[in-house]
TrEMBL record:
GO biological process, one term: L-leucine biosynthetic process
Family matches, as SMART domains: Iso_dh
Catalytic activity: (2R,3S)-3-isopropylmalate + NAD(+) = 4-methyl-2-oxopentanoate + CO2 + NADH
Cofactor dependence: Mn(2+); Mg(2+)
Protein name per UniProt: 3-isopropylmalate dehydrogenase
Cofactor note: Binds 1 Mg(2+) or Mn(2+) ion per subunit.
Pfam family, one: Iso_dh
Organism per entry: Pycnococcus provasolii
Amino acid sequence: MMSVCSRSPLKSCAQGQRHRGARNSLWSRSSSSSSSSSSRRSLTACAAMKVTLLPGDGIGPEIMDVAVDVLNTIATKHDLTFDFTTKLVGGAAIDEHGCPLPDDTLDSCKASDSVLLAAIGGYKWDSLPSNDKPERGLLNLRAGLGAFANLRPAVVLPQLADASTLKPEVVSGVDIMVVRELTGGIYFGEPKGFGVSDKPGMEGSRTGYNTDVYCEKEIERLARVGYAVARKRGSKVCSVDKANVLEVSQLWREVAQRVRDEEFPDIELSHMYVDNAAMQLVRNPKQFDTMITGNIFGDILSDEASMICGSIGMLPSASIGEDGPGLFEPIHGSAPDIAGQDISNPLAMILSAAMMLRYDLNQEAAADQIEKAVEKTLDDGYRTVDLMSEGMKQVGCREMGDMVLERL
Ligand SMILES: NC(=O)C1=CN([C@@H]2O[C@H](COP(=O)(O)OP(=O)(O)OC[C@H]3O[C@@H](n4cnc5c(N)ncnc54)[C@H](O)[C@@H]3O)[C@@H](O)[C@H]2O)C=CC1
Ligand SMILES: CC(C)CC(=O)C(=O)O
Ligand SMILES: [Mg+2]
């Protein structure tokens, strides 16, 4: 059975012994499996794995609770020890400390082997100035950890081929890895702000502006991750940009092509404009293997890809840099519209914990076991409301978590 995110592109460390910089060398390995020497080494008992937990806002705390239960259960089965520290981020941190990313939170994350985040944001904080919003806390966390590459696997599990709004024959077998640049582009570019227009005919009208900017080094390092990831998959990469209009995309395309030509000649590379990519994802998603793209395009395309898989509540992600702990989070937000009702889907959160075990903590077997338990739960017909279809058994967030725990 295909596992949700089993084709690990990167591995870094044994339990409690982070190997700084190890990811880079491992990116170029041609294969990874649970019998690799690094995985075997990880099975020997060693120090506790320090993990900072960031439940955040909205549905964040309820899905985090479930994921922590899963991690605690898997720890007993694999003789692992977690040292969890829970910290505030986003709206919860604003309410308590007046800022969305307190130093104490970032310091804890940096001192950890890995970071697990649920989601941030909510209506309550929507009218704050941009730099004070929960979302800025998340962006600064990603930047603070140097987590520039965001891996978002969009895999259609056979159990959920009919859960998508698209036809089963269109989505069955889809297995896409979106590699999104995460610490640059328009979410970070300067100048940004509000002003007054001097455009002819619009003089005096308020303006809002942002800057989409990438330097060559940012594109190069993201492209390298994308190609290395692709090597462990179908060796086929589609780089998505808007080079027919944007200078920043023209540079993106040129650099992506150069890195491929100079360092990854075995990779089949194509380029696609983002508007076409959005359309092609719905028309024929199976044409894609690995996509590399900038921050905003990857944000949007991965939400679109999630619906190919049945629900945004299914997609986990790993955000990684050259060094330091990775950040693992579902791709969805805090879903304030359903928060506090115990109806959210915790599977993306659980699968993010599995990605953390595999990518950051080198616990391949434990990650496999969690993913299999998720698939078995779906096999047995349990569905949260976002995935619900005729003949299935509807469960809430907590109960879905319990079903996964029973199958671990
Ligand atoms: N990484 C993060 O923490 C992110 C935070 N946000 C923030 O989240 C807040 C809400 O943003 P939206 O645009 O509504 O995006 P969202 O992803 O929170 O929700 C979009 C839709 O999907 C549903 N949904 C999301 N996750 C679900 C789950 N696990 N189970 C079932 N249904 C789920 C929601 O109920 C909603 O109808 C905003 O404040 C936004 O800035 C948005 C995206 C990512
Ligand atoms: C703060 C946002 C950029 C979060 C988001 O939508 C995402 O990372 O998917
Ligand atoms: Mg998003």
